[in-house]
Design brief:
Alpha-Beta Plaits
Length: 140
């Protein structure tokens, strides 16, 4: 069975209408979109989602930003999907990211780094379950 990973197109990506460009990058690397939805989530949701970062200097800006508008939530499937997603995303800070990565191409000043990608299989499983029911994920 193929590996799955969660990729969130953050509010700046939705606002700037670059969902298609980002999606193409994942498809070009051989991943298949097996779940997708557009949504908006409260500040309280993001405080829980990013709980591991509570107390860090960027936490407040991050949760405020993530609750500032709609996001496009996707699940991608394929060989080594978590690693491929992280490579495509690039370094967290767009200023440090490879120019060919998503954050290098499209990222704005932090925390508007365009995408969130799961960082491990365990994180992917947990994060996917926060947004999708089992019957909302498709197998091709």
């Amino acid at each position: 069975m193929a590996e799955k990973t969660l990729v969130i197109y953050k509010p700046d990506a939705v606002r700037r209408n670059i969902i298609g460009e980002i999606t193409t990058l994942f498809q070009d690397r051989g991943l298949k979109m097996v779940g997708a939805k557009l949504g908006w989530y409260s500040r309280e949701f993001w405080e829980e989602f990013y709980a591991e970062h509570k107390g860090k200097d960027f936490f407040e800006r991050l949760v405020n930003y993530m609750s500032s508008g709609p996001i496009f939530i996707t699940v991608w499937s394929g060989d080594d999907a978590v690693r491929v997603g992280r490579q495509l995303a690039g370094a967290t800070d767009p200023l440090q990211a490879d120019p060919g990565s998503i954050r290098g191409r499209y990222g704005l000043p932090m925390p508007m780094n365009t995408v969130h990608c799961s960082d491990s299989l365990e994180s992917a499983e947990r994060e996917i379950s926060l947004f999708f029911k089992d019957d909302e994920i498709f197998e091709w």
